[in-house]
């Protein structure tokens, strides 16, 4: 597996940032009184499984925020969301998804702001191996089935499709 480098994403569309901010604001307010925190694309994670090279998810929910060294989290977030762009989609669907599976991020969302579509993956035991887990696609949420948008690892947190894509035309 190739090591993921830190990339400058300053050329992303504004809609990319709008989706991230909508999620962080809506979900972050609901998790204030918990041990978990929501982070936008400003935090780095370092894991042995990635040769300790920093990885920056677009959004993460981390319930182990004390497990850090300097400016990097060492623990694994329970949730990660990547907002797809032309330059990152292949990496988000392949290398990052593989890495998140390897470190056991429990829930992984791929958000396509252009199509207004959310792919929700949940880590499930692999039936062919006792020690392995794999992502199972739980749903692909669009305007037609927007009521299916939910955080599986945080069932008490509410986020509507309209909130996530507010300001994205």
Could you characterize what this model shows?
The chain is an alpha+beta fold and 169 residues long. The chain has a single domain, classed as tt1808, chain A (Alpha-Beta Complex), CATH 3.90.1570.10. It is built from three helices and nine strands. The chain has helices at residues 14-30, 89-103, 161-164, and strands at 37-39, 44-45, 59-62, 68-69, 72-73, 79-83, 107-112, 117-125, 133-141. The chain has a six-stranded mixed beta sheet with strand order 1-3-6-7-8-9, with helices on both faces. It is globular and about 40 Å long. The N and C termini lie far apart (37 Å).
Which key phrases capture this entry?
six-stranded mixed β-sheet, 169 residues, globular, alpha+beta, tt1808, chain A
CATH topology: tt1808, chain A
CATH architecture descriptor text: Alpha-Beta Complex
Percent strand equals: 15-25%
How many separate structural domains?
1
With helices defined by DSSP (H or I, 4 residues minimum), what is the helix count? 3
- Structural Rg: 15 Å
Short synopsis of the structure:
The protein has helices at residues 14-30, 89-103, 161-164, and strands at 37-39, 44-45, 59-62, 68-69, 72-73, 79-83, 107-112, 117-125, 133-141. It has 169 residues and is of the alpha+beta class.
Secondary structure: elements and pairs:
Layout: H1 14-30, E1 37-39, E2 44-45, E3 59-62, E4 68-69, E5 72-73, E6 79-83, H2 89-103, E7 107-112, E8 117-125, E9 133-141, H3 161-164
Parallel strand pairs: 2-5, 6-7
Antiparallel strand pairs: 1-3, 3-6, 4-5, 7-8, 8-9
């Amino acid at each position: 597996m190739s090591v993921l480098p830190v990339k400058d994403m300053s050329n992303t569309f504004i809609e990319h940032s709008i989706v991230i901010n909508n999620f962080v604001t809506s979900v972050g307010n609901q998790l204030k009184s918990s041990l978990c925190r929501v982070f936008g694309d400003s935090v780095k994670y370092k894991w042995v499984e990635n040769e300790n090279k920093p990885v920056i998810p677009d959004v993460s929910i981390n319930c182990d925020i004390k497990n850090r060294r300097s400016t990097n989290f060492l623990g694994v977030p329970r949730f990660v969301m990547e907002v797809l762009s032309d330059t990152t989609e292949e990496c988000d669907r392949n290398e990052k998804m593989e890495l998140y599976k390897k470190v056991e991020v429990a829930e992984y969302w791929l958000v396509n702001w252009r199509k207004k579509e959310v792919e929700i993956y949940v880590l499930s035991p692999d039936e062919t191996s006792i020690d392995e887990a794999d992502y199972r696609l739980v749903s692909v949420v669009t305007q037609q089935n927007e009521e299916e948008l939910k955080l599986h690892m945080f069932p008490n947190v509410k986020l509507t499709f309209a909130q996530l894509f507010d300001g994205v035309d």
